[in-house]
Specification:
The complex is a heterodimer.
Chain A: E1 2-6, E2 16-23, E3 26-34, H1 41-44, H2 50-57, H3 65-79, H4 86-117, H5 130-151, E4 160-161, E5 164-165, H6 171-183, H7 185-196, E6 209-214, E7 226-229, E8 234-236, H8 241-244, E9 247-248, E10 255-256, E11 264-265, H9 268-275, H10 282-291, H11 294-297, H12 304-328, E12 341-349, E13 352-361, E14 364-371, H13 373-394, H14 401-410
Parallel strand pairs in A: 6-11
Antiparallel strand pairs in A: 1-2, 2-3, 4-5, 6-7, 7-8, 9-10, 12-13, 13-14
Helix pairs in contact in A: 2-3, 3-4, 4-5, 4-12, 4-14, 5-6, 5-7, 6-12, 7-12, 9-12, 10-12, 13-14
Chain B: E1 6-11, H1 17-23, H2 29-35, E2 37-41, E3 54-60, E4 63-65, H3 66-77, E5 79-85, H4 87-91, H5 104-112, E6 123-127, E7 137-139, H6 146-157, H7 169-175, H8 200-203, H9 220-229, H10 234-243, H11 246-260
Parallel strand pairs in B: 1-2, 1-3, 3-5, 5-7
Antiparallel strand pairs in B: 4-6
Helix pairs in contact in B: 10-11
The chains are: A alpha+beta, B alpha/beta.
Amino acid sequence: MKRVNIEPIARVEGHGGIRVEVEKNKIKKITVDIYEGPRLIEQMVVGKTPEEDVSITSRICAICYASHRLAAITGLEKALGIKVSKKTELLRELAHFGEMIESHSLHYYLLALPDLVGYPDAISMVNKYPDDVVGGLELKKFGNRVMEIVAGRRIHGENMRIGGFGKIPSDEELNWIKRRASELIPVIESGLELWGRLEIPDYMEEETNFVCMEPGNNQFGFSGTEIMVSDGTKVDVEEYKKITNERVVEHSFAKRCRYKGKPYTVGAIARIINLGDRIKTPIARDYLDRYYDEKKWKRNPIYNNVAQAIELLWCLEKIPGLVDEIKKAEYKPVKAKKEDGTGTGGVEAPRGTLFHSYKIKNGLVAEANFIAPTTQNLDEMERYMMNAAKNLLDQGKEDIELPLEIIVRAFDPCISCSAHLVRVVKKG
Amino acid sequence: MGKKPKVGFYGLTGCAGDLLNIINCEDELVELFDIFEIKSFVMASSAKDESVHLDIAFVEGSVSTEKDLEDLKEIRKKSNMLVAIGHCAAFGGVQAMHLGDGKWKDRYKKVYGGEKAVTLTKPIEPKPLSAYVKVDYVIPGCPISKEQFLHAAGRLLLGTVPNLYTFAVCAECKWKENECLLLKGLPCLGPLTRGGCGAICPSFGVPCIGCWGPVDEENISSEFKLLLEKGYNREEIIRRFRIFGGSERAEKLKKLLGVKK
């Protein structure tokens, strides 16, 4: 038996490996092994105050800490009977945009593109693609700056609080964000042009379901109170378990997620497939019309990369209007109305739907459950890799490592946050 | 240290925020890859060579599995210098807040539902790097700051030692002329916490949660008394002290509370 081990998976946040077992040129098994150790965060927050919970749970992941923080805050505020002021809501949206821009530019330019243009990393691309590497870094820096200003730090900022903010950004800072967002639009346009010149691999294609939060009011966006599936199903966020169906697999500690018994995809591609017709900003609309091909996108996770770039562009186009609204809105911090309750927060992290669900008793966390995007995508990664490996081996290809890594990276997996998915593989 | 120091960037169990903050050096990243001969930086590049001896290894994350431990020992063996980056590597991270309470296995069972299956690697109670190997330097923070990383990397490049802040967050708060949050009655851990973050949270009006870990000469008895006077109860104070306090503060607390009884 030939075994292919790709470990660790490069340019992926956290530690994972792909284990492929091939026998007589037939694929036997593919698993994504997660080496990231357990941190037991769901247990760490039991007995903590909601404020302490927010500081701890945002540390689950560095890249999408703001999403973790927002999911936690949303769930906890619901449990505590808090309805925040308009300004708080809008500022949170701006911080969320900052994270999307930072995370998507990191993934699109630094992690995914090197594969598609044939380099080991973005820095090696700098001579041939100077504008795109430098541009990608500029976009990333801007996303980070937005988070510094609004959320308090590039990583693990503490400014977003339960009920409001520590400090409201000044008009000067907000105006800078507005101006800089518009200046950067040509950068991502150029990055999107590059996509048009790439050859997109299709060795794994197969249909699937796509899940994301429903922002409501026929809007595109990154949060909501309902979950939306591409088959038309909608459920209240409190019933998230109906979608995720977390289960323990016999041969694994891993809690895996399946909807109606099948793997499903979350992330930018799911949001664009489910909500893309609601994208109205002119430039993002234009690129979407140019690149979106439903038949292709619904079968091929590689399009998640360009879906991210289009979302990034949409954020940049939305920021000026959002900043104007923020400046007009009234701010009021809000305190907890009760000490007992339950609540689930669902938000779209850059790499997909994220849930933080709580039970609060006497003002302290009694129970907590978190489901991160990569948790939901792991079964998909394995399924698409299985397809790819079968097809490639049938075509007589031997070198299947990079093609499989490209699939895993397309999901932009964040293994820190799916760490309680230690996969057990029986040998033989 | 020769022409181009050979360095490796590694991550054990954590949120990867310290390595990410190195990638967040957007203006310096291209130069960083040029000044150092980067032999391993899995998060940023698929080009790597684990066979060479390293001048410097930067390691983030806590040791939380047997594989983490094997990797760490391997890295230590092949590196002249090992630098722990971030709170997890330096103090164990939030996952080590209950370190040594004897209940880790129970918590583990609650999350995973059992420990009978054969696993890819055996999980162990999260600990900082220094619990297992010699650590030459520590760059603290949750996450580390880009400024302190660049400073420390620059000093090491020149063959000298990093000169990081050894005083508390309060000093930086005073430099910024922030209003003292403790005086306002907020449970700020600035006096106990190592500076270097730029007093970032207090500058946002948010009390310090201690994410850079304990400052060497922390006076926990005085802060404890102060918070009691401000109306916080013992349990609240202990809880807050322990979130980022690591095992040393846990020991100090044990002594302090033992005396108080």
